[in-house]
Amino acid sequence: MTIQLGANQYGKAETRLVHVTRGAEAHEIVDLNVSTALSGDLADTHLTGDNAKVLPTDTQKNTVFAFAKEHGVGEIEDFGLKLARHFVGTQEPIHRARVTIEQYGWERIDVDSSPAPHSFQRTGRETRTAMVTVDNSATTDGERAWVVSGLKDLVVLNTTDSEFWGYPKDRYTTLPETHDRVLATAVNAQWRHVDADSDWGKSYDAVRKHLTEAFATTYSLSLQQTLYAMGERVLQHCPEIAEVRLSLPNKHHFVVDMEPFGLRNDNEVFFAADRPYGLIEGTVVQDTAPEPGLAW
Ligand SMILES: O=c1[nH]c(=O)c2[nH]c(=O)[nH]c2[nH]1
């Protein structure tokens, strides 16, 4: 029997970075959770403990802070690319860097109907995400970069235009068929860009709009059908996107039985269960899309 070191990576997970731009009139704030993961020629540290090729995770964390200071943050995709290129470009044994970023939203507090210059409230909106991978190993022939953008926890709900029926029934099936139900989910989506160069902010706004518009306008016979419609609509309208991956928890809303109280509940009062939830996941891809390579 021979035992070998398999795939490995290491980095600093979840560096929480808050960057304040102190403009003369008003401040801006960016709030990120940044994770770095490096891989390459790292056998020595695993096999003998020789750390000559191990850029400390502590240094990786400091680099995140220093880059925010020296270059600003900007779009999270650009910040991720800058960091990933720095690690593969300056550490000879490191051939691949993946930088994963979550961005938490803040908006100005209004004071007497005008936006306060330096006071903010966290938005109740989704979390924007980016996952950037840069590789310069021999197999890649120069440097290659992949960018996956996304969003997490975008909670949406339709009060009608949703049915679920026609499914197989066995001795354990108790779910009644429905021709009018509440459909709710927290959209978790990631989308792979055709190129590692795009107008990231504009693209994000467009994808978000098409995801939500597809959710709102699809007459749904299953959350699976809605999932496909959401991915399809993004790919129809956003040529810069090659593939969309969706993970949609079915946030069940059960009609409360009010007959014991002598009341008729005409789809008006629901019990919003948080667990368990159906989890509907799928990928929608355009057939001319470039290969995903190391994007995921
Ligand atoms: O849209 C749905 N898809 C399912 O697969 C499913 N399963 C279930 O119990 N309810 C639902 N709803």
State the end-to-end CA separation: 32 Å
Give the domain tally: 2
Task: Give the ligands present.
Answer: uric acid
Write the CATH architecture name of the largest domain: Roll
Question: What Rg is obtained from the alpha carbons, in whole angstroms?
Answer: 23 Å
Main sheet: which strands, in order across?
1-2-3-6-7-8-9-12
InterPro entries: Uricase
Catalytic activity: urate + O2 + H2O = 5-hydroxyisourate + H2O2
Organism: Haloechinothrix salitolerans
Enzyme class: oxidoreductase
Explained architecture:
By secondary structure, the chain is an alpha+beta fold. It folds into two domains: 9-142, Urate Oxidase, CATH 3.10.270.10; 150-296, Roll (Urate Oxidase), CATH 3.10.270.10. The protein is built from five helices and twelve strands. It has helices at residues 43-47, 57-71, 76-90, 200-217, 223-237, and strands at 15-22, 27-40, 94-104, 106-111, 114-122, 127-135, 144-158, 183-193, 241-250, 253-255, 270-272, 278-285. The strands form three sheets. It has an eight-stranded antiparallel sheet with strand order 1-2-3-6-7-8-9-12. A hairpin with an 8-residue loop joins β6 (127-135) and β7. α2 (57-71) crosses α3 (76-90) and α4 (200-217) runs antiparallel to α5 (223-237). The longest helix has 18 residues, at 200-217. The two termini are 32 Å apart.
